[in-house]
UniProtKB/TrEMBL annotation:
<protein>
    <submittedName>
        <fullName>CreA</fullName>
    </submittedName>
</protein>
<dbReference type="InterPro" id="IPR029479">
    <property type="entry name" value="Nitroreductase"/>
</dbReference>
<dbReference type="InterPro" id="IPR020051">
    <property type="entry name" value="SagB-type_dehydrogenase"/>
</dbReference>
<dbReference type="GO" id="GO:0016491">
    <property type="term" value="F:oxidoreductase activity"/>
</dbReference>
<dbReference type="InterPro" id="IPR000415">
    <property type="entry name" value="Nitroreductase-like"/>
</dbReference>
<dbReference type="InterPro" id="IPR052544">
    <property type="entry name" value="Bacteriocin_Proc_Enz"/>
</dbReference>
<feature type="domain" description="Nitroreductase">
    <location>
        <begin position="159"/>
        <end position="343"/>
    </location>
</feature>
<dbReference type="Pfam" id="PF00881">
    <property type="entry name" value="Nitroreductase"/>
</dbReference>
Amino acid sequence: MKIRRRAQLICRWVPEGLEVGVPGRRQWVRLSPELREILERAGEGVGTDELAAAFGEENAPQLRAALDKLTAIGLLVPADSEVRPAPLWERWGGVAERFHVEGRDADYLVESPRRGEVAGEIVAEGGMPDAFKEYPGRPVVPLPRRPLPLHGTVDDVFAARRTHRLFTEDPVGIDQLSTLLFHGFGPHRFLDGGPFGVQQARVSSSAGGRHEVEAYLVAHNVTGVAPGLYHYSAARHVLELLDADVRREQVEELTYRQEASYRGAFTIFTTAVANRLAWKYRHPRAYRLWMYDAGHYGQTFALAATALGLGPFQTVAFEDSAVERLLGVDPDEEFAVYLLAAGVPREAGPLLPSDFAHPRPAALR
């Protein structure tokens, strides 16, 4: 009988040694030198008799037992079998599959008497991340404190919300930008978070009120804001100037020349300050949370922009590392997650973006 090693196995080094993930389970197997050699020799296919000879006949009983165990948990499979990853993991790869498995079925201690105890241990450990990021000493652009009224009905805003890719050359006013940043990224009020301190209530929901999303704005054509790269201080409701020389052309290079990302009045790069989440939520499942939160922020941005008569655009198609270098952030602590942009949209029908046409009936079939 011939056996082979299962494709796309994921291994990790821990203080106790090398471990391999069991396919489809939140389980890891410690690899002794002998087990590691078995998996290495199995490769794309090897006969069990050949394996037995390699380890010596005196070890045959232990070898057979090890092969049976490795086959039972799916690390080894018959060489002529059709055992393959599910199509999803063939497309996304073994690393994604392993992460998906590890992130499932987290215990959030919702009804556990240990909930308060665990929270106390986290707080006692110290190191609580700052709720706000600021750049002290940088020049600032104070933003108007009173937001513009959003008079559109929910029905109208929902119906008109579209991703826009064509914009006029008209500037966006500082009052419009201020209103959009306030509703999109600023705290509306504060809450008592118990042992986790004062927490923010923003329009967008955020896991545990951690609000790890930060906004960096490249102004192109905003009345009252000179072109350049800014950080939005949610605590002070000001723009902090980071680089006065950043222009549209740099955004163009970072976004694979998607015109909508830089042709509007401004571009916003959002990031996730990872430790704001990881400090409180310590299970791998929590890695999903910044994705959810980035989406919440993106939708709030799009709806608020629509209510202000602006055309929103959003994309994740950008060069992460290059964006992080532009922003000057350490990707081990804070990484790029989403690009948002807006401008004055070209004239279009009330329910149709200016750069799209209705599909022909034949296309719908």
